[in-house]
Design a protein that fits this description.
571 residues, Rossmann fold, Calcium-transporting ATPase, cytoplasmic domain N, seven-stranded parallel sheet, 18 strands, 18% strand
């Protein structure tokens, strides 16, 4: 929780974390042209478009289970990108079950994050077909022909340029683009990448959209206000990633984007020189994440990193706060992480950082309160001894005051609600002392104030009403003034009299209980012998009440003067 409170960089996956992870195919490129996916549904499709749909449907491990009798939402099994392909094929009237029987899969080369391709082999009557899908830029390099209508044509020159331009156009429009290719064999081919993933026939592209999460934009703005840099890390094409990052306000006017290939060509020093300007890392592998974390940590940043795969475990372990995905994450990634997002949502990370800051601030408030009160007690006894006075407080008085003030009020500060400005402050440096920014000085100053008031009351009470009454008065003042002083600890610099004054019902309950216990000891005659106190008259009680409220008034005046000084500096 302490580390969360000073997080300064969030490196986040895009799909499912920044976006809804509900892919839908919107565009199809085939026959050298981009068409709307819905238009194909209405107007029918050409052989090239049909092949794109067929490859996407069969080179695919996802499935959709329908329960028409109970009319419940279909069960989607598999990666959301692959589910989108199956759904699109179903919408066009294809049936994956029937297609799999017509062209059963007889071999495959699974998807690999380094290769960025997946290939399956199918038997179709007396021939064998290999279907390949994957990153368009990589796939198109392996194609030497393309399908136009029913004809095969050389995939070079203008045809290749048109496909590359379509890929860029779709990527710039924030679409996730996948390429599709195939090859035909007269006999069952060997399951080797060298054979199945070269000399391919290009079929086309699909552009699918994954809408951003509605709440993410506000969370990213909150990060910006809090001095936390958000970095998008994705396996998508760079243009796609940048377009989405701009939409989410992650990518600004002076931001940069780096691809995995560019990252590999950079030395650590070159990466360090640019890391603070890079808002998007695209086409990266899990290994690249470790380098990104290292680069930020060399800059002194406290890094939060998200991941869901087995290969993400080193980066999750390396980061200051590793965040695994609770829904899509593997067991290995969850074990390596410090935090698990049960909803896979970026906004949850921001909420956790805010909670971390709140908890750290509340720890500081409790320390502030306890130390200033204990300093006061030490000073009272020390000064009285040095100047030769009678002992102002007996051991039982000290024990009782510590019992009623160091317990419930201090615990109640731990659940104090922080104001909205907590996410408008820069991250705390991990090396920063708890007593930084003047807190140590305020603790000593306020402890001195409490001790001076208590000693003043003791001196006045002893000289005017006798030693027993003086001890009773200082005992009452020290206990009650600490209970009013707990309000000072709620806010270091701002006035405690704000809209949050009554928000912590636990604190007010603790003050009421502790105050009642303190008054019972002094007011109930049966307790006088046990605590060595005596009854106080009206005049003595007015002195006690005034001295008990004085710390609150004095500290509020010092805060007001400090705010006035800061305001004058801005003029």
């Amino acid at each position: 929780m302490e580390t969360l409170g000073c997080a300064s960089v969030i490196c986040s996956d895009k799909t499912g974390t920044l976006t809804q992870n509900r892919m839908t195919i919107k565009k199809v490129y085939a026959n050298e042209g981009i068409v709307e996916a819905e238009d194909i549904m209405e107007d029918g499709f050409t052989p090239s478009e049909k092949f794109v749909v067929r490859i996407g449907e069969l080179c695919n491990d996802a499935s959709i289970i329908y329960d028409e009798e109970n009319d419940v939402r279909p069960i989607e099994i598999g990666d959301p990108t692959e589910v989108a392909m199956v759904q699109y094929a179903d919408d066009l009237g294809f049936n994956k079950g029937a297609a799999s029987k017509e062209a059963p899969r007889v071999g495959e080369i699974p998807f690999d994050s380094d290769r960025k391709l997946m290939t399956t082999v199918h038997r179709y009557g007396d021939i064998w077909l290999s279907f390949t899908k994957g990153a368009p830029d990589i796939l198109m390099e392996r194609c030497n022909e393309y399908l136009k209508g029913y004809e095969l044509k050389p995939f070079d020159g203008e045809a290749r340029e048109k496909a590359a331009a379509a890929n860029e156009e779709l990527s710039n429009g924030a679409y996730r683009v996948l390429g599709y290719a195939f090859q035909q064999y007269n006999e069952k081919p060997e399951e080797s990448m060298e054979l199945l993933e070269n000399n391919l026939i290009f079929a086309g592209l699909t552009g699918m959209i994954d809408p951003p999460r509605e709440e993410v934009r506000d969370s990213i703005k909150e990060c910006h206000d809090a001095g936390i840099k958000t970095v998008m890390i994705t396996g998508d094409f760079k243009n796609t990633a940048v377009a989405i990052a701009k939409n989410l306000t992650i990518y600004g006017e002076n931001s940069k984007a780096l691809s995995g290939v560019e990252l590999e060509e950079m030395t650590d020093q070159q990466l360090d020189d640019q890391i603070e300007d890079v808002a998007v890392f695209a086409r990266v592998s899990p290994e690249h994440k470790v380098r990104i974390v290292d680069a930020w940590q060399r800059k002194g940043a406290v890094v939060s990193m998200t991941g869901d795969g087995v290969n993400d475990a080193p980066a999750l372990k390396k980061a200051d706060i590793g965040c695994a995905m609770g829904i899509t994450g593997t067991d290995v990634s969850k074990e390596a992480a410090d935090m698990i997002l049960t909803d896979d949502n970026f906004s949850t990370i921001v909420s956790a950082i805010k909670e971390g800051r709140c908890i750290y601030n509340n720890i500081k408030k409790a320390v502030h309160f306890l130390l200033s009160c204990n300093i006061a007690e030490i000073l009272i006894l020390f000064i009285a001894t040095v100047v030769g006075w009678d002992q102002p407080l007996l051991p039982i008085h000290i024990l009782w005051i510590n019992l009623i003030t160091d317990s419930l009020p201090a615990l109640a500060l731990g659940v104090e609600r922080n104001d909205d400005s907590i996410m408008k402050q820069p991250p705390r440096k991990p090396t920063e002392s708890m007593f930084a920014n003047g807190l140590g000085g305020r603790i000593i100053f306020q402890g001195i104030i409490l001790s001076i008031l208590s000693l003043g009351v003791f001196y006045y009470g002893q000289t005017h009403f006798g030693l027993a009454t003086g001890r009773t008065m200082v005992f009452a003042v020290l206990g009650l003034s600490q209970l009013t002083h707990v309000l000072n600890a709620r806010s270091e610099k701002n006035s405690v009299f704000n809209k949050y004054f009554f928000t912590n019902r636990y604190l007010w309950g603790a003050i009421a209980i502790s105050m009642a216990l303190q008054l019972v000891v002094i007011v109930v005659p049966g307790a006088h012998a046990v605590f060595n106190v005596t009854a106080l008259n009206a005049r003595e009680w007015w002195i006690v009440i005034g001295a008990s409220l004085a710390p609150l008034v004095i500290v509020e005046c010092t805060k007001l003067l400090a705010r006035l000084g800061r305001w004058l500096k801005t003029k």
